[in-house]
Amino acid sequence: MKTKALYPGSFDPLTMGHLNIIRRAAKLYDELTIGVVSNPSKASMFTLEEREEMLKDALRDLPNVKVDHFSGLLADYVNRMGFDVVVRGLRATTDFEYEIQMAQMNARLFNESVETVFLMTDPQYSFISSSVVKEVHTLGGCIDGLVPDEILKRMVK
Ligand code: ADP
Predict the structure, then answer these.
(1) pLDDT tens across 6-20, in order?
(2) Is there a catalytic annotation at residue 134?
(3) Domain spans in the chain, listed from the N-terminal domain onward
(4) Which of 24, 32, 88, 125 gets the most CB atoms within 10 Å of its CB?
(5) What is the mean pLDDT of the chain?
(6) Is 60 a catalytic residue?
């Protein structure tokens, strides 16, 4: 049976850290869906449509990866779509504190067979987050190499 995995997140914007997790997860599972969170009440740099478009562009070379979006409870989306695995990335102990709480809460809400799997960040990307990238860029700092080139062009616009 095929293993269907989900990598959920805001991806506002997609960074090299996300991309590294996606490429590694795509090797582990038959199908990987990138689930972009739609949260209209949270201010974002890019719209949901823009974030999905940027992901599709960046992931064109990965045939077993697709891009989707969801709103509301992650567990409802996971149960509805029949994912077997939810992938998350871990950068530091601060991520761990938050992620273990969410994973344990989700374990109550998921269908029994769904596992949350954590991939450790590649050390070269451990300091990268969408929010730090946006903040540095907004203040005029260089973020070359931290996000895909196409995304950097859109941020400059
Ligand atoms: P959220 O809004 O839930 O934090 P993000 O889009 O920021 O969503 O991130 C989605 C997932 O990717 C999270 O599990 C986060 O820990 C992980 N992630 C973000 N940046 C990196 C990175 N540089 N290296 C590894 N994992 C990362």
Answers:
(1) 999 999 999 999 999
(2) no
(3) 4-156
(4) 32
(5) 96
(6) no
Block residue for tokens 């080139």 = 149
CA distance 13 to 44: 9
Q: What are phi and psi of 46, to 5 degrees?
A: -115, 145
Q: Indicate the SS3 state at residue 4.
A: strand
pLDDT of 40 strictly over 90: no
Work out the burial of residue 4: count CB atoms within 10 Å of its CB; fewer than 13 is exposed, 13-18 middle, 19 or more buried: middle
Query: For ligand 1, what atom is nearest to the CA of residue 95?
Result: 16
- Annotated catalytic residue, options 10, 18, 44, 134: 18
Per residue in 47-101, pLDDT (tens digit) is 999 999 999 999 999 999 999 999 999 999 999 999 999 999 999 888 999 999 9
Asked if the 4-156 domain carries CATH number 3.40.50.620, the reply is: yes
Token pair 């070379």: residue? 61
Burial environment of residue 80 by CB neighbours within 10 A (0 to 12, 13 to 18, 19 or more): exposed
